[in-house]
């Protein structure tokens, strides 16, 4: 029985395997039929395939040639772009350098402007000092004139004489010291102005060179024009400073003339002093003469008194 059951199991297993194989064969048959149908629907002769392949090859060659041409153009454009980029980089470097140089020049011009302003202020101070000196000189001259007139009006025999020579010497020393200080300051300012002018001329020359190199850049040209305007303004300031120096020189010449006038006034005072001394000597001699006459009169009066007394006694 066991052998029979085992035999039945083997038969059933083989039957199942046969059914599975049969189903697989049916599936393969369906697939083959489908492929045959598709092949019959899409069949193309070999010559047609060869023509299509030739056209595809021609198209591929054409596309390859176009790609090669495009690659050449792209390489050319790339080279031009690289060259243009390099040129732009160099241009930017030059522009940045010129901008830095122009900023440095602008800083230098601002420094020159500040120096010129300080020199203008110094000249203004010198002008104020000279005006004050002129006022002091006029006041001293008026005071001397008033003292001379007062001395002339109030002269008496025993009045003490004023030492005008010492006063004049002191005034002369003060004026010479003031003149020396003023002349030193003016010479120093002239030297500083000439130095600033040289620096300004050098800066202008350098700026002109930079302008020639930067004619293709509108920004640099604008900066150059502004630099020229500032340089022109500085030149105007220098001109005004020169006019002030000339004015100071005229004031110095006026001081020299005033010193000559004071010298002439002092000489007149000396002459007047000499005349007053002579008058004083004459008055002293007249006083001595009057004292002598008074003494003689007193002696005579005493004698007459004695004679009168003697006559009365007799």
Could you please describe the fold and organization of this structure?
This protein is mainly α. The chain has a domain at 98-281. 94% of the residues lie in helices and 0% in strands. Helix 2 packs antiparallel against helix 3. Keywords: Coiled coil. Residues 1-20 are annotated as: Disordered.
Compact summary:
The protein has 314 residues and is mostly helical. It has 4 helices and no strands.
Provide keyphrases for this structure.
single chain; 314 residues; mainly alpha; 4 helices; 94% helix; rod-shaped
Mean pLDDT: 66
Classification by helices and strands: mainly alpha
| Multimeric organization | single chain
Query: In sequence order, what are the helices and strands, one letter per element?
Result: HHHH
| Beta-strand share of residues | under 5%
Q: Please count the beta strands (DSSP E, at least 2 residues each).
A: 0
Low-confidence stretches: 156-162
Radius of gyration, whole Å: 63 Å
Assign a percent range to the helix content. over 70%
Could you tell me how far the N terminus lies from the C terminus, measured between alpha carbons in angstroms? 237 Å
Largest sheet: none
What is the count of helical runs? 4
Shape: rod-shaped
Region (Disordered): 1-20
Keywords: Coiled coil
Coiled coil: 95-133, 168-300
């Amino acid at each position: 029985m066991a052998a029979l059951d085992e035999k039945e199991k083997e038969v059933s297993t083989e039957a199942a395997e046969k059914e599975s194989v049969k189903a697989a064969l049916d599936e393969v048959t369906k697939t083959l039929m489908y492929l045959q149908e598709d092949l019959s629907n899409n069949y193309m002769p070999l010559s047609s395939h060869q023509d299509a392949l030739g056209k595809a090859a021609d198209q591929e060659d054409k596309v390859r040639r176009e790609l090669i041409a495009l690659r050449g153009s792209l390489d050319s454009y790339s080279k031009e772009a690289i060259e243009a980029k390099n040129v732009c980089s160099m241009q930017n470097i030059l522009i940045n350098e010129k901008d830095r140089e122009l900023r440095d020049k602008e800083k230098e011009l601002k420094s020159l402007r500040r120096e010129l302003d300080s020199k203008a202020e110094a000249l203004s101070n010198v002008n104020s000092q000279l005006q004050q000196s002129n006022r002091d000189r006029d006041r001293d001259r008026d005071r001397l004139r008033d003292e001379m007139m007062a001395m002339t009006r109030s002269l008496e025999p025993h009045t003490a004489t004023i030492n005008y020579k010492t006063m004049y010497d002191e005034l002369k020393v003060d004026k010479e010291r003031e003149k020396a200080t003023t002349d030193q300051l003016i010479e120093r300012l002239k030297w500083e102005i000439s130095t600033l002018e040289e620096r300004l001329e050098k800066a202008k020359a350098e700026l002109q060179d930079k302008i020639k190199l930067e004619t293709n850049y509108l920004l640099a040209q604008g900066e150059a024009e502004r630099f020229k305007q500032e340089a022109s303004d500085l030149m105007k300031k220098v001109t005004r400073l020169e006019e002030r120096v000339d004015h100071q020189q005229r004031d110095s010449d006026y001081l020299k003339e005033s010193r000559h006038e004071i010298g002439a006034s002092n000489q007149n005072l000396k002459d007047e002093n000499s005349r007053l001394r002579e008058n004083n000597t004459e008055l002293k001699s007249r006083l001595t003469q009057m004292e002598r006459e008074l003494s003689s009169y007193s002696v005579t009066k005493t004698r007459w008194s004695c004679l009168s007394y003697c006559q009365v006694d007799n």
